[in-house]
Amino acid sequence: MESTSDALTARLRAGDTAAIGEYLESHRLQLLAYIDRRMSDALRSRVEAADILQELALDALHRIADLADVNREAFGWFCQLAEHRLIDAHRKLFGAQKRSANREVGFDAPGGDAPHSPLMNLLIASLTSPSQAFSRDQRQIQVQAALESLGESGQTALRLRYVEGLSTHEVAEQMGKSDVAVRVLISRSMAQLRTAFEES
Known about the structure:
- By secondary structure, the chain is an all-alpha fold.
- It has helices spanning 4-13, 18-26, 28-37, 41-44, 49-67, 74-98, 118-128, 138-163, 168-175, 179-199.
- The protein is elongated, with a radius of gyration of 19 Å.
């Protein structure tokens, strides 16, 4: 006999939008926990996991047809939508801040590192969602692999600079390094990531 969960998943794959609300309600705690684990401290101070879940629900209504075309469980699909909403939230809340006039715009800008460039989108996605389990983007997987090769200091510097939206001076203070050392670290790390992106 088909389980309730299997029946609900079948309805989702068939494009039944009413099933979205039922699925989200039955998996609310798991999805909230998933979202909370992937929220940076800066983002968590501005929005709640429930806000991201609400945006996810609206996204699912518009993209439910995609579920029939992917070979994955429904929960994985909803998790991927959550990742997209987290990336968008970071972009909206911190994008303007990290490129404001009082920050070092020109130093690490060359090479397509604008807030909405493909590389920056992949970087934020990789730093926000370390797990590759739900990624369908081969380029993101390659960027994640490149991030791992940077070591902990390189990853931390990029996370603070581009995800948290701190200036290089603020990053230096948090990492206990000089401003110049952080600038060099970020520049070298971005150059390595650009190479991985261009080869993907």
